[in-house]
Amino acid sequence: MITVHRDYRVSIKPERYAHVEINPVGKLDVEIKGQRQHYVADFEQLAFSSDEQGVALVCQKAHSPWKVMLATADAQELKSLVKEAQEEYEILMRDL
Question: Where does the record place a coiled coil (predicted)?
Answer without folding.
Answer: 68-95
